[in-house]
Design goal:
Elements: H1 2-15, H2 28-64, H3 72-104
Length: 108
């Protein structure tokens, strides 16, 4: 659900032509390329968060099953890393939504 909201927000920002990464004199092709890069950046970040969460789940399952080589310390670090990544993702999502709403509320 969060990844869908972030991806939708990224597409909305990119589709609205609001990508200032290309400079003020850039043409529509450059803006479209910057929008695609923004979407790719968001998708990559979401994939990294998902990988951290999967790694934490595997580590925790190994400790719970007393698997050989499982280490409680590594499982706790992986779990904390996944939690921090998740909280950062939610914070970024909230900032993107707030920025998008601010831009949409501007009067031209």
């Amino acid at each position: 659900m969060l990844s869908t909201a972030l991806t939708d927000a990224a597409h909305a920002v990119a589709g609205a032509g609001l990508a200032p990464l290309t400079g003020p004199g850039a043409g529509p092709e450059a803006q479209a390329a910057a929008g695609a890069n923004f979407v790719d950046l968001i998708n990559g970040a979401l994939n990294n968060v998902s990988a951290d969460q999967k790694d934490a789940a595997v580590q925790e399952a190994g400790v719970a099953a007393a698997a050989p080589g499982a280490n409680l310390g590594r499982a706790l670090v992986a779990s904390d890393r996944a939690e921090v990544a998740w909280n950062a993702t939610v914070a970024v999502r909230n900032e993107v939504v707030t920025a998008y709403q601010s831009i949409m509320n501007m009067q031209f």
